[in-house]
């Protein structure tokens, strides 16, 4: 019985030591509403054929370039560029309301 108690205490101490100082940060800022024109807020972003990082790249958009947002899906925005009309999906975190 003492051996099991000692093992449980040792495991608890080990897990406590391993997780000390660890934290998780989640950005809960909602994306801009769909149906509006938004600007790219970072240096450059890929516009992809589907809403995933492993999808084919259709084009690249650059800081300040304006896009129309049609819908959101799990952190991705379906967009079309106002200048060329290229369509696809980009990471919604890189859109600003300006």
Give the SSE layout.
Elements: H1 2-19, E1 37-40, E2 44-48, E3 57-62, E4 66-73, E5 76-81, E6 87-91, E7 95-96
Antiparallel strand pairs: 1-4, 1-7, 2-3, 4-5, 5-6
Task: Based on the model shown, name its key terms.
single chain; 98 residues; alpha+beta; SH3 type barrels; 5-stranded antiparallel beta sheet; two-stranded antiparallel ribbon
Architecture overview:
The protein has 98 residues and is an alpha+beta fold. The protein has a domain at 37-96: SH3 type barrels (Roll), CATH 2.30.30.40. It is 18% helix and 37% strand. The chain is built from one helix and seven strands, in the order αβββββββ. It has one helix at 2-19, and strands at residues 37-40, 44-48, 57-62, 66-73, 76-81, 87-91, 95-96. The strands form two sheets. It has a five-stranded antiparallel beta sheet with strand order 6-5-4-1-7, with no helix packed on it. The chain is elongated, with a radius of gyration of 22 Å.
CATH superfamily of the domain at 37-96: SH3 Domains
Structural class of the secondary structure composition? alpha+beta
Distance between the termini: 66 Å
- Number of strand elements: 7
CATH architecture of the domain at 37-96: Roll
Q: Roughly what fraction of the amino acids lie in strands?
A: 35-45%
Oligomer: single chain
Unreliable runs, pLDDT <50, ≥5 residues? none
The percent range for helix content is 10-25%
Biggest sheet strand line-up: 6-5-4-1-7
* Sequence of secondary-structure elements: HEEEEEEE
Organism: Solidesulfovibrio aerotolerans
Pfam families: SH3_3
Signal peptide: 1-22
Domain SH3b: 35-98
């Amino acid at each position: 019985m003492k051996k099991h108690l000692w093992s449980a205490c040792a495991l608890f101490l080990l897990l406590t030591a391993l997780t000390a100082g660890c934290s998780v940060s989640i950005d809960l800022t909602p994306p801009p509403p769909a149906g509006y024109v938004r600007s790219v807020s970072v240096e450059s972003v890929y516009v992809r054929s589907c809403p995933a990082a492993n999808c084919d790249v259709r084009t690249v958009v650059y800081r300040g370039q304006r896009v129309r947002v049609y819908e959101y899906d799990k952190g991705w925005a379906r967009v079309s560029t106002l200048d060329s009309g290229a369509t696809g999906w980009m990471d919604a975190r890189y859109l600003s309301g300006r």
